Predict the 3D structure of the following.
Amino acid sequence: MGRRILLTYGVLGFAFLYLPIAFLVLFSFNDYIIPSLPFRGFTLKWYRELGYDFVLHEALYNSLFIAAWTTVVSTVLGTLAAFPLVRCTFRFKQTGQLLVILPMIIPHFLMGVALLLFFAFVKMPLSRLTIILGHVVFTLPFAVLIVSTRLYGFDRTLERAAGDLGANPARTFWHVTLPLILPGVVGAALLVFTLSMDEFLITYFVSGQKGTLTMYIWSLLKDGIAPRVNALASVLLGGSFVLLLIGAWVLDRGKGGQSKRAAAS
Amino acid sequence: MTASLPADTATAATVVQRRVAAPSAARAGDPPAVELRGVTKRFGTTTALESIDLTIAKGEFFSLLGPSGCGKTTTLNLIGGFESTSSGTLLIDGQPVQDIPAHARPVNTVFQSYALFPHMSVADNVEFGLRMKGVPKAERRRAALEMLKMVSLAGYEDRRPSQLSGGQRQRVALARALVNRPAVLLLDEPLGALDLKLRKQMQLELTRLQRQVGITFVYVTHDQEEALAMSDRIAVMDHGRILQIGTPAEIYGAPANRGVMEFIGSVNALEGRIASIGAGRATVTLEGVGPMAAHTEAPAAVGDAVAVLVRPERIRMSATAPAANAPSLAGTLEKIAPLGFVTHCTVQLSNQAEVLVFRLNNPDGSGSEIFAEGQRVFLWWDYSDGRMFPANTRIDSIGTPQAASALSGDRHDGALGST
């Protein structure tokens, strides 16, 4: 009896989380211009329509371009920042860690305004570059956090052993440290990419002429909910899910993989 | 096994010759493998090593033995290049190495935690050092396989370290270090994480391997039995100083001071005053009990307060008093504890002090006399077995918890407890 209540409770909880998304995906296949029940029939025409939309294509290209650069910059900077924040002892270390994490909890709306004011102040024209900079600011804490968790569990004797066996510090990093924290770095990169692709508010403030995918969807919504938006959102959703799954898999493999391999043999 | 080592210096000397002659291929004129001259290491205001002098010959199995915090690991880290000396000279193969970083020294280390690279196969682990030196792939693979064979791990080359047992990881760590043919191999308590049986087995294998490859081993341990069993020579350390350097037989049989004697093996300490002395032989009166035999190389005079330290296995026990005018102590046999090949007997003297006596359970070892708990016994020993040191010179961290007149039976796990 108690189990049944718990089960119902669980199902309701997941329904609350995922039902709206399920409807979104469902209506993207609905053969009717207005996304409402009842279901009129299965169609892929909204997906086909995406293929003819050249504005959409440019927005997608912009988004991928921005996300790719954000990923590279954020992951590299985040990895570099994680090392001193985890390993070194210095004055105000905790303050430093807090300041690195802080952009995570600053509302994107405020950050967007702040960035816009800043770019205006330094007379930097709004472009894809400003969007990338904005995205780096809000994704960096995620990258630092994920790489840090890897570094906290890192046995530094391994680096000593590499040095003992004749590897200089650079080769020690390349052959020992980097391979061992790689799951963290890859996980960070995937998360940063996803966050950047989905970002809207900051992008909206600092984008200038170049629209991204999220901004394009926003513009479509102004004329009511077009079925095309459902199709596009479904595609984006699928892409994000795949990336997150890969990320989770890579992170898990890095953590538990050793024991799993041991058990398998 | 320590109990069976000869304790008198004459026998010890022959053992010394045998052991030193055996492993070393060093020719006269070769520089020593490692030499420390007045090496001091400070961490902030604390001194970890105080002006250490140490010479380790080529091909030697040398142990640094002492309690935790004695400076043995610091010494190892200095040789390995993981720490830098505060002052003094450190030579490896005759070359000063103070300014050479760890990765450029002809030294390899076996870490206590093994520190195998978890993302590499066993073979890749073993090859790592040669790879860093730029040895071609085929050649280094061959060397790695050969070395794995030497440590009895042929066929394991494609496994991951996580798929190996503790003992196997230990061997991989050894192979990974030895394949580089270092001038010196440093071992930091490498058997500490293994269970007792495996540890014994690895002790034998390590000594065999060392003879086979002829590489100088510097071995850090706090386990005196391990050091005695494996080493050509041992440096006993405490509080950042070296108390004594010598062969296992010398360290055990002729300890340079009370600290060494109390750290190595089991020991009874009885404090009294010198009643008579001549030519290093003394009779020491244990107040209210009787006279004891003792000897010393240091100058001493009648009336001096001294401690007589005697190994439990060197004490003779009988229900009848020894021959006339031989010093002996009378007491009550409190407890007989048979521990397999040896029996631990606790004798309470009339001043309440307890003396531990080991009797080997064979007819030659301790005679066939049968004892019963509660009976009156006499204890005596040869002059050469009672080592006399000035009273109150004990070094606290290294010795037994007992302070003054006698040693009770509760800390005799040293020499034999692990057998």
